[in-house]
Amino acid sequence: MLIRHAHRSERTAELTTWFPHDLVIGGEARAGADGHRFDVVNPATGQRIASVASASVSDGLAAVRAAECALPGWSAVAPRAKAEILRKAFELMCERAEDLAQLIVLENGKSLIDARGEVAYAAEFFRWYSEEAVRLIGSVQTSPSGQNRIVVSHHPIGVSVLVTPWNFPAAMATRKIGPALAAGCTVILKPASDTPLTALAIAEILRQAGVPAGVVNVIPSRSSGAVVSAMLDDPAVRKLSFTGSTEVGRTLLENASRTVVNCSMELGGNAPFLVFGDADLDSAVDGAMIAKMRNGGEACTAANRFYVHASVAEEFGRRLAERMRALRVGDGLGERVELGPLINEGARLKVDSLVAAARDAGASVLTGGESHSGVGFFYPPTVLVDVAPSSPILDEEIFGPVAPIVTFDTDDEAVELANRTEYGLVSYVYTSDLSRGLSVSERLETGMVGLNRGVVSDPAAPFGGFKQSGLGREGGHEGMLEFTESQYIAVNW
Ligand SMILES: O=CCCC(=O)O
């Protein structure tokens, strides 16, 4: 059921009031020590949709205490019992999928098509980690001297602080909560202040699924920096898992260094999308639309720079511009809308200034290129060609619906251009020669490669980057090991 004007406010209330709008600490909904609250706003209409409690430093520390108290009990729960709770959470998310998707659209602005995709992706993390919870497998080996055995086992790392972004308010939360709970850890989730409602809704689903009080604590806050920093200074906290910008990641790593907290960091990206002269152009354009436009371009995996062989660049640009021009832009809850607004005015100004700088340096616009004025933080789908190599749009994460195209002549040049960045999250490669595709992929300095494929995100795969795109991996078996410490016992056999 889409929200129509006549009953928009009733439907908004239905979507936003089945879970608390307060802090969730130790299984209780709390207003917060200093009573501060903040508004959550719909990016398409600018209207307030809810008011949420804002955690202070003392609330953050109370959440750490709650997680610390719950840790011995949760880590002792049998793997099968943990698995069943996570499985139940997956089922409840599936049952409420449409409500969750519309809630995401309300607070994030993305199209309902993207939001439905996100809910399915998010729920899969609970299913995957329900299956992993019973597979925390260690090892036994004979030492090289032959004199003893080396027995290795994995233990829950302990209280974990999870800091999540606004672009995937459900999936980035479940991608961290799923493996943490499967490994036996307790958590404090600090969702982005633009999108706290989805996190609170997921906490309610976890409660209904049987997660005991104190195992999952949620503290939305407008004082994120101070609250997270104080939690990291608390000796009970042993893990930080962060998804967000490289800039904020650097600050958190400095904070975490004070107590040597183990960190998993999923940071910024600047994904190159390489199209070789032998690529199937239909499939390259389909892949480009996904790699660029999934989540409206607001994804760390979004293709940021298109490097296209000179022999096919004109045709590729023409076809991509045609597809981008045809996208239906509007309120994410609108009928058949494919692209919603950006998250806020700051995001729109950033995209606008990157495009303006590229144009000033000589780029031509095939479609889009001008910011909409008026209500909602909309930016049109845009394709730029003849982008000068020095343009900031090729260095910075655009986080919006803009595709800058640059041409190349040789494979070596394509690889060199692709690797010319401090980031190393993901690359996309299109070629019909598998051997070329694999050898180019291996030369790309990124943690993930989409080879003839415009999406790499998969709960079963290790997601993460090289260079300044982060540390550690999320998803797959690796994602659960991030929430463990391994212990080795040298045994005289
Ligand atoms: O934006 C970061 C995460 C994107 C994804 O998991 O596909």
Automatic annotation (TrEMBL):
Q: Which InterPro entries match?
A: Ald_DH/histidinol_DH (IPR016161), Ald_DH_C (IPR016163), Ald_DH_CS_GLU (IPR029510), Ald_DH_N (IPR016162), Aldehyde_DH_dom (IPR015590), Aldehyde_DH_Superfamily (IPR050740)
Aldehyde dehydrogenase domain boundaries:
35-488
Instruction: Write the record's keywords in alphabetical order, separated by commas.
Output: Oxidoreductase
Q: Cross-referenced CDD domains, in alphabetical order?
A: ALDH_F5_SSADH_GabD
Q: Which GO molecular function annotations are given, in alphabetical order?
A: succinate-semialdehyde dehydrogenase (NAD+) activity
Transmembrane stretches in the record are none
Q: Which GO terms describe its biological process?
A: gamma-aminobutyric acid catabolic process
Residues at the catalytic site: 266
Does Oxidoreductase show up as a keyword for this record? yes
UniProt lists the family membership as follows: Belongs to the aldehyde dehydrogenase family.
The name this protein goes by in its record: NAD-dependent succinate-semialdehyde dehydrogenase
